[in-house]
Write a structure and sequence with these properties.
251 residues, alpha+beta, D-amino Acid Aminotransferase, Chain A, domain 1, six-stranded antiparallel beta sheet, 6 helices, 29% helix
Length: 251
Amino acid sequence: MRYRNYRQVASKMSKTKVLEDNAMVQTYIPETQWLNAGSLKNMSDRYPLLFVKPDKGGGGVGVIRIRRISLTLFEVRYRRLQQRVERDGLYEQVWKWMLKGRKYLVQRGIESVSYQGRPFDYRILLQRPAGKWQISGMIAKVAAPGEIVTNSRKGRSALSVEKSLSYFTPSPAYQKLLCEELRDLSFNVASVLEKRYAGLKELGIDLGLDQEGRFWIYEVNTSPQFHIFSHLSNKGTYHLIMKNHRKIISS
């Protein structure tokens, strides 16, 4: 749904290119290319994990995961479907599972930290109800058992950022540093995108944390969903988000 004075940018690649061109945030962006047979071969030669996803759309719809098993063998996964293919058949298999009529991109995959064997990533929600960006919510999204992405609502769960970081490091000081980095990075992303796309009012930044403690920006949504924040025990965060949202769309 479109609202008056509410800017949205649908293309993942467009936003990625803007972020890649800025020195403050470019090191947080995993390599991303338009998908074709050549780019898939190039990326699969260099990275053991890849994600193929539609340039436009959300909720994890259409996302395909590729994991290298050996020099010539790959595991391709789409939702609960899984197929092992040789290198020569990799693009053909991916093409079979792509949503027809959509442009796709291929992105370096990150081996993120996990919770009970399930990958999780972070959603940082920024809103601008009164001229200045604020972080209204931060949450860790835990993938449903057997799922390859955290976007799917069915079966997924949520953790506070503080709780999730305790599974990565027992050090409170290190946890605090990581939280501060998340906040600083989120404001930098908002600043960079706002300069390119005037009129942005809300941003949902999805990030992963790898095994070395490095954050990676998977994508940024300019019309983010809020439902995941209702899973937090502190309902005040969700109520604040909705209050800000109502103010934004009515302005």
